[in-house]
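Internal QA ticket QA-208
Title: Verify multi-chain structure generation after dependency bump
Assignee: T.L.

Test input:
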Amino acid sequence: MDNVNVLIVEDTPEESNALIKTLKSNNYNIVEVATTFKDALQAFYRNKVDIVVIDIFLNGNPDGISFAETISLNPKDSKPFVFLTSSTDRNIFERAKLTQPFSYLMKPFNELEILYALEMALEKFYAQADAFLGDEENTIISDEYLFIKKGKSLKKVLITDIIYIEVEEKYCNIITENEKFVILISLTKILKLLDPSVFSRTHRNYIVNMLKIVEIVPTDNLIILSGNHKAVLSDTYKDILKKLRTLK
Amino acid sequence: MHSYIENVIKISILLALILSVNFLNSQENSKTDLLSVEIKNTAIHYKSYNNFYKSASFFLEEKWDSTLVYAMRHINTSINDSIMLNYAHYFRGFGFEQKKVFDQAQKEFNLISSEFEFYFLVKKRLGVIALEKNEFKNAISYLEPLTKLKDSQYAYLSKSSIFQNLGLCYNHLGEFQKAEAYLVMNVKVNEKRKDTLNLITAYGSIANLYYEQYKDDLAIPYFEKAYQLSKSIKNFEAKRITTINMAVVEENRKDYVKALKYRKEYEQWKDSLNDQNKIYEVAQIEKEFAVKQKQQEVNLLQVENRAKIKERNGLLYSALTLLILLGLTFYFYKEKIKTNKLIVSQKEKLDELNATKDKLFSIVSHDLRSSVNALKVSNGKLLENLEEKNLEALDGMLQNNSAIVNGAYNLLDNLLHWALLQTKQSYFEIDSIRLYFIIEQMAYNYKPLMQEKGIRFENTILKKDIVWADQESLKIILRNLLDNAIKFSENGDFIKVYSESKNDRYCNLIVEDSGLGMTKQKQEELLKDTTVLSKKENEDIIGTGLGLQLCKSMIKKNKGIFSIDSELGKGTKMIVSLPKIALNG
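Actual output:
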């Protein structure tokens, strides 16, 4: 599991320092701190950013909103973001609201508020409400990563690293090359959100990354995966064999 | 000489004849009334036959032209009722007779069948027509059978007229004996009936008859009788004729004195007649004049009326306009009063607000001054201790300082939000909010303070509890409620935050503490919708009441309800009811 990458766009060093301290202590990775609109854009495209924290006012101008507008222009490149502001000025808010999805945080804020704001931003951006903030789940699935809530913090897992998933009621065991961990997510949701050309169900309780298959032993109903992991292939799902042929 | 007399006689006879015909008509009036009734009944009986009915009606109204037309129309229709046909022919015959078209009248009368109920009347009409046409023999043939009618039939025609006319006919034919017989009978009939006017005519006729035969002795008493009778009546025509007859008689008797006297009387009656006619004419003219004058008056009145109506309408319109103007004035006056009232009430409110603001100003500045002063004193001590290197005391003093600053900060924060709320400049958007997290976040700042004061904190709200509110204002509300709870709690007390769902629409968020609590009176005072700030009761506890006022305003703006459940010495429950679903408006 990796830490979540945060880009901070904030022109006041005291505030950015305090923010860095808070986020770092919660296992977030701060990729860069930008202080101007231009810097922020460069930093955004230079780094692999998972989420951006933007101060609305940069050097007295609402450049933060312009930055958010710019990165939202191309939906493929856009990332979740949180606005920070110390002003409740209605006009500024009306403009900021136009950048969707909109989440904001009033200064001053405490640790819980910023962590909550980041989780909210991810939920809203990936349109998976209650993924972190309800009791039922703790995972958001994006194209690239699984974002998993661990304690107060967030972690991410590269989806391509997953070898297979074993479902146990409400839980899913995620098995990667190096680790094995449990997430809270429903089977229906995970099946819906994972790329079906890569992940296939082989058994009532197994979802397998097809790219990680080493060998299939149909007589034993067994799939051998990389790292010598084994998954079950039930009769119901033997159709995947046809799919595999085309992959070879 | 003789021929002269003869001439005179001839003239008098002629006069008498005209007279008799005139009388004949007048005499028959009463008799024809019965016939009218009969005709009316018949007409009503045949009412559905429009032409017949109309002809009968016009007949009774003596409108002869119309009678002729409608009777003709009825005859031309294919309705073959003999009763109606006979009546129709009778109407036409009578009509023609009245219009003096005797040939046509005779034709019509002849078309009536002998079965006709009033066939004897037809005979009479034919007789009269024959007499008019001087066909005396014909007339006699028609009239003579009428002398022997039943009494019931004489109800419809006068026997006397038959005798009179027959007498006249025979007289003209020179058959004096027959004439005498009829005329004598006529006299008898009339004497019996005491019909003066007819009697005069009868006497005149018989006198003429005798006089023509030079039977002067017989004639003169009749003339005199007629003359004497004429004195008792008012008919000038009768008087004139009897007088002239007497004058002629006396003249022939060479008694010129008497003759002259009669002549003069005759002249007098003639004049009277003329006068009467003249008076009548004058009366007629006067009547016409009066009518004209009346008409003029009527016209004048009409014009006046029109003018009056115009005037009245004018008055009405002006009155209406005035009324409308009055109404409008009244309306605007009322509006003005309303506006004035509004202005006055607004002014009062404004004054009140201003007073509140001033009070707020003084309290806030007082509090801030105390805080800053405490900080100043504390900083001085801090510096002293730092110089003395008394590091152990530093920690406690710094914490004290931080508490003072926190209090001051909260006060300033409330002040700022109060100002923003008053000016409505602040961003406000109602959205769904997860209560649990927001309370955790707000309580986070107070955790160290609570720990220090030894207060237990518990948040038992479910993660799925959602309310619809504006995030920032909800945060302010929670901050103030927690702040208050901590302020009024002591070591060992607890603060619990939990929710209750009383109904589908509202979620009750409750901040409960086991602290000082308050009296009912204080609770009511706090809940009162007034901006006047209460004076501080507890001097050691920093507070202005601004926090709670701000809470109340914010809750109201979030369409929530605020209530307090507290008991002095036992603790307080601050209850905030917020909508669970998005409310419209």
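Spot checks passed. The beta strands of chain B are 430-434, 456-459, 466-470, 494-500, 506-513, 561-567, 571-579.
Status: verified.
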